[in-house]
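Exam revision sheet. Question 4 asks you to relate a sequence to its structure. Input first:
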Amino acid sequence: MKILHFEQAFVIINFLATIKSVLAYSNVNPGVIILDSLSFNKTVQAFPFSFVKFEVLDPSGSKHEVFGILAKELSEQADILIAEVRIKGYGHPENHDLSERFGLNQGMLPELVLFTKKKLPGKKVDYEVTRYGDEMDLDHLRRFLQCRHAITKEYFLF
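Answer key, structure tokens:
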């Protein structure tokens, strides 16, 4: 019998707790965890690396599809969370605290951000925040993740 570690159990519990909110969204890619203002910090803290796409409420198109392919490729990689935060239009408060926190606005979405967990003396957890600023295609995303935290090609299913 395998015993779950605290972080693994937390992720499972968080995932189950967010099923209701996930079902409220359309166009959710398999392997992508939908986060909101309440679940963001807890979930991102549970992984050494979190690659988060900040996106409009109902994403579509090639950028959305490419992110979904990346999530499938990394689905067996335990060290990285692939997640999405949906930012509703102005006038809706949901997740706007996250958009303000990371300096995002509707015109710049989708925005991809890599959070690298680091422990600092006197602090529980902090993050190195790296924004992805290149073309939104699969090869560029793979290279970005390989350069930023040493995911090797063996993790990709291509």
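Marking note for examiners. The longest strand covers residues 49-56.
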